[in-house]
Design goal:
This protein is α+β, with helices and mostly antiparallel strands and about 750 residues long. Among the domains are: about 350-445, Beta-Lactamase; about 455-555; about 575-740, Heat Shock Protein 90 (2-Layer Sandwich). The strands form 6 sheets. A 6-stranded antiparallel beta sheet has the order 7-6-13-12-11-10. Strands 15-14-19-18-17-16 form a 6-stranded antiparallel beta sheet. Strands 2-1-5-4-3 form a 5-stranded antiparallel beta sheet, sandwiched between helices. A hairpin with a 4-residue loop joins strand 11 and strand 12 (about 265-275). The two termini are about 90 Å apart.
C-alpha cells in the first residue's frame, strides 16, 4: 500500500514539472510564431498603405503646371479664370477619386476648389497654418495627415508649389480619403493602428482607440498640435498601457486596461513599421489570449499524453498479470466467433427473401438459394434469361420503369404479382427493384418475398371480418333488448324509490300520530260533553245555551282540522316534476306541518326571513319533506336540552345558489357518525324512533334536484356566549329570473 502511494506521488510530481516546462516552452514558441506571422502581416499592410499613398503622390506636381490653375493665381485673374479652374479641379477630383482638390494663393487663401458648388466650399478660407502649405511654399512636396477644419473628415494631404517663370504663385493640394484602408483591415484577434510622428492614432480597427496616443505627450507638443488645428478640438488622451516588456525582433508585450470590454487588463504583442516616403507609423497588435489558449491546449495535450502513457504502462503491467486468463478468454472468443460466422453464413444462404441480380436489360445474372427454391429453377437454368416472362399479373410499364437506368428517383416501389415455377405452380409474391453499383457498373437487385401465407391469412381475416360483423349485428340486437330491459328496471327502481320516500313519510306520520291522538282526545271529550249538555238544554228549552254549546263544538272541530291538516299534507305523493318553488311558500308549508309538534315542544324555532323572496328549481312537496326531516331530527336531538333552539337561515351565494342552513344547539354529531350519517338504515336514535332512512332519502332528493347536502359540527360566539351543535347545509340552484 505504501509503495503504491509513493508511486502515485512521484507520478504527480512528474506531471506538475512536465506541465511547467511545457507551459514555458509553448509560450515562447507560440509567441515567436505569432511574432513572425504578425510581422509578415505588418509588412503587407505597410505595402498596401504605401501603394495607396503612392498613387496620389505625384498628382499635385502634375497639376501645378496646368495653365488654368496658373491663370487663376495671377493678379490679373478674372471670374472666368476662377470658374475654369474650379471646373477643372472638380473634374480631376471625380476622375482620380480623391476627397478634395483645391488651389491656394501665396498667402494661404483658397482661390479655387473642387467643392466650389458645395455649402462647405473651401474658397475664401485661409489654410496657411497647415504644415503642408508651409512646406510646399518652400519649394518641395508637402505631405500631412489631419482632420479637415471644415469637413471634420480624416484625410491625407499632398501639396506642391505652383511656379510660373521662377515665381511661386501658390500651392495645389490634394486630399485623400483613408476610410477604404481602414475598412479593408479586418482580422480576427488582430488590431491595426496608424499614427503620426507624434504617436497620435488616426486610423484604427478599434473605434475607441481613434485619436488616442501611444504615449503621454509633452505640453509643448500638445500646444503645437493644437495650433496647427490638426485634430480640431479633440482631447488627445493616451491609451491605458500599464506595462511594456521588450520582445524579440523589435516587438513588445504590452498590458492594457480596457474597461470598455469589461476586462481589467488585456495583453497584446505589438510591432511597429514606418510607411516609406511619409511620417506615418503602422502598428499591429496581436491579442495574446490566443497564445494562452494555445499554451493551455498544449498543456492539456501533454497532460493527456502523460496520463495516457501512465495508464498504458499500468495496462501493460496488468495485462502481463492476466495473460493466461486472457489467452483462455481469446480462445473461447475465437471459438464463439467461428460459430457465429457459421451461423451468419447459414442465415445468408437460407434467408427467406429471394435475391436476384439483373443487368440493365433485365436479364438474370445471379440468384441466391432461396430464389432458386422459390422458382424451382437452378441458377444455371435462368442465368441470362429475361426476368419479366417469369411474372404474371404485373404491369409491364411499371416493371420497365423500375429497371430503367435513367430512373432519377431513389425510392423503391413494392410490386405485387405472381410467378411461374418450373413445376407449373403459380405463387403469389411481392418484390422491389433497387439500384446496385458494382465495379462502376449498374445492376438491379430484385428482392422477392413469397406471400402465400399472407394471402391465406388475408382470406382468413376477411372471413373473420364477415363473421365478426355478423356477431356484432347479433350482439347489437342483444344489447338493444338488454337496454330496453334496463330502462324498464330503471323505471321500476324510480317507482320503488318514490315508494320508499312515501314509506319514510308514513314512518314520520307514525311518529306524529301519537301526538295527534293525544291532541284529538281532549277536543273529542269536550265535544261529547257539550253535546250531552245541549240535549239537556233542549229538554229545558234553553235555546241560548244550546247555541253557545254548538259554537264551542264548531271551534273544537276547527282545531281538530288544523291538527289533521299537516298529516294530510305530509302524506301526499309528489308529482316528481321540476318547478319553481318560492322560499316563502316552502317556509309556510314546513311551519304548517310542524305546527302540532312545535305547540307541545319547548324548542324555539327561529326561521330567519329572507331579505327577498327567492325561487329555486325543485319540487315543493319533496323540499318540504327534506326540511321537515331535518328540523324534526334537530328537535329529537334537543330532547334533553334545557334551552333548545333551532335556527334556519338562507343566503344567495356568489355562484347563484341558495344556501339553507339548519343549525341546533344540541350535543352535535360524533366524528365517526359524520362519515356514515347519510347511509341508508344508519340511525343514532333509540329503537322504535326511526328507520335510518330520513337523511339518506333527503340526500337522494336534493341530488335529484341538482343540489347538495352536507353535515358538520359548528362552534361560534353569539352574544358573548360560546354556542355549538350540529349544522346541515343545503345548496339548491336558483331560478335566475327571480334575482334578475
Amino acid at each position: 500500500m505504501f509503495k503504491r502511494s509513493m508511486i502515485t506521488v512521484f507520478l504527480l510530481i512528474g506531471l506538475v514539472v512536465g506541465l511547467s516546462l511545457v507551459s514555458e516552452y509553448s509560450q515562447k514558441n507560440v509567441i515567436s510564431q505569432l511574432q513572425q506571422r504578425t510581422h509578415a502581416d505588418l509588412n503587407r499592410y505597410i505595402l498596401t498603405m504605401r501603394q495607396k499613398l503612392a498613387r496620389f503622390r505625384d498628382i499635385p506636381q502634375l497639376l501645378s503646371s496646368h495653365p488654368d490653375l496658373i491663370r487663376a493665381l495671377r493678379e490679373s485673374a478674372n471670374s472666368n479664370d476662377i470658374i475654369r479652374a474650379n471646373k477643372y479641379l472638380a473634374q480631376v477630383n471625380q476622375v482620380l477619386g480623391t476627397r478634395d482638390t483645391y488651389l491656394m494663393s501665396a498667402n494661404g487663401m483658397t482661390v479655387s476648389a473642387s467643392n466650389w458648388q458645395s455649402n462647405k466650399s473651401f474658397i475664401g478660407l485661409n489654410f496657411n497654418f497647415r504644415p503642408y502649405f508651409t512646406k510646399a511654399m518652400s519649394g518641395v512636396l508637402g505631405q500631412y495627415f489631419a482632420l479637415g477644419t471644415t469637413s471634420k473628415k480624416r484625410g491625407f494631404y499632398y501639396s506642391y508649389p505652383v511656379v510660373h517663370r521662377g515665381k511661386t504663385l501658390g500651392v495645389i493640394v490634394v486630399k485623400i480619403d483613408l476610410n477604404e484602408i481602414e475598412q479593408d483591415w479586418n482580422e480576427r484577434d488582430i488590431e491595426l493602428i496608424v499614427s503620426d510622428e507624434d504617436g497620435v492614432i488616426f486610423i484604427s480597427t478599434r473605434e475607441d482607440w481613434k485619436f488616442r496616443t501611444l504615449k503621454s505627450l509633452h505640453h509643448q507638443d500638445l500646444a503645437r498640435i493644437k495650433a496647427s488645428k490638426r485634430y480640431s478640438d479633440i482631447d488627445l488622451v493616451p491609451l491605458r498601457i500599464t506595462q511594456s516588456i521588450p520582445g524579440e525582433h523589435n516587438s513588445q508585450v504590452i498590458t492594457m486596461r480596457e474597461p470598455n470590454l469589461g476586462k481589467s487588463k488585456q495583453q497584446y504583442l505589438i510591432q511597429h513599421g514606418v510607411v516609406g516616403n511619409s511620417d506615418l507609423n503602422v502598428s499591429i497588435l496581436a491579442d495574446l489570449e490566443s497564445v494562452q489558449r494555445q499554451v493551455l491546449a498544449n498543456m492539456l495535450y501533454v497532460g493527456t499524453v502523460y496520463v495516457a502513457i501512465v495508464l498504458l504502462v499500468m495496462v501493460i503491467i496488468a495485462k502481463r498479470r492476466i495473460n493466461k486468463q486472457r489467452a483462455l478468454f481469446e480462445h473461447r472468443e475465437l471459438q464463439a466467433l467461428e460459430s457465429s460466422e457459421g451461423r451468419v453464413k447459414a442465415i445468408l444462404n437460407n434467408t427467406w427473401a429471394g435475391l436476384i441480380t439483373l443487368d440493365t436489360g433485365g436479364h438474370i445474372e445471379s440468384m441466391n438459394v432461396t430464389a432458386q427454391k422459390l422458382f424451382n429453377y437452378t441458377e444455371d437454368q435462368l442465368c441470362g434469361q429475361l426476368f419479366y416472362p417469369l411474372l404474371q399479373d404485373v404491369d409491364e410499364d411499371l416493371y420497365l420503369s423500375q429497371i430503367d437506368p435513367k430512373r432519377l428517383d431513389s425510392g423503391e416501389t413494392l410490386i405485387e404479382g405472381r410467378i411461374n415455377c418450373s413445376n407449373g405452380e403459380i405463387l403469389p409474391v411481392e418484390f422491389v427493384v433497387g439500384k446496385m453499383r458494382q465495379s462502376e457498373a449498374l445492376h438491379f437487385l430484385v428482392t422477392v418475398h413469397d406471400i402465400t401465407e399472407r394471402k391465406q391469412y388475408e382470406d382468413q381475416l376477411d372471413q373473420s371480418r364477415r363473421l365478426l360483423e355478423s356477431r356484432v349485428e347479433q350482439r347489437t340486437a342483444e344489447l338493444t333488448m338488454a337496454n330496453e330491459r334496463l330502462l324498464q328496471e330503471v323505471k321500476q327502481q324510480s317507482h320503488t324509490q318514490n315508494e320508499l320516500i312515501q314509506t319514510a313519510k308514513l314512518a314520520v306520520i307514525g311518529q306524529m300520530s301519537a301526538g295527534i291522538n293525544h291532541e284529538l282526545n281532549q277536543p273529542l271529550m269536550a265535544i261529547r260533553g257539550y253535546a250531552d249538555n245541549a240535549r239537556k238544554f233542549l229538554e229545558l228549552n234553553k235555546v241560548q245555551n244550546i247555541d253557545n254549546n254548538l259554537v264551542e263544538i264548531a271551534q273544537l272541530t276547527e282545531r281538530m282540522a288544523k291538527i289533521l291538516h299537516p298529516l294530510k299534507e305530509f302524506s301526499r305523493k309528489s308529482s316528481g316534476q321540476q318547478q319553481t318553488v318560492s322560499l316563502t311558500t316552502l317556509r309556510s308549508g314546513v311551519m304548517a306541518i310542524l305546527y302540532p309538534e312545535l305547540e307541545k315542544s319547548k324548542v324555539t324555532l327561529d326561521w330567519l326571513a329572507p331579505f327577498k323572496d327567492v325561487e329555486v328549481m325543485g319540487d315543493l312537496l319533496r323540499l318540504e319533506q327534506v326540511m321537515v326531516n331535518l328540523i324534526a331530527n334537530a328537535m329529537q336531538a334537543l330532547s334533553e336540552n334545557t334551552q333548545p333552539s333551532i335556527k334556519v337561515s338562507q343566503i344567495v351565494t356568489c355562484d347563484k345558489q341558495l344556501e339553507i342552513r339548519v343549525r341546533d344547539n344540541g350535543p352535535g354529531i360524533g366524528e365517526a357518525e359524520l362519515a356514515q350519517i347519510f347511509e341508508p338504515f344508519f340511525t343514532t336514535k333509540q329503537e322504535g324512533l326511526g328507520l335510518g332512512l330520513g337523511l339518506s332519502i333527503s340526500q337522494r332528493i336534493i341530488e335529484d334536484l341538482s343540489g347538495s347536502i352536507s353535515a358538520e359540527n359548528y362552534q361560534s360566539e353569539e352574544q358573548g356566549e360560546l354556542v355549538s351543535g350540529a349544522q346541515f347545509t343545503l345548496l339548491l340552484p336558483i331560478n335566475e329570473h327571480s334575482i334578475g
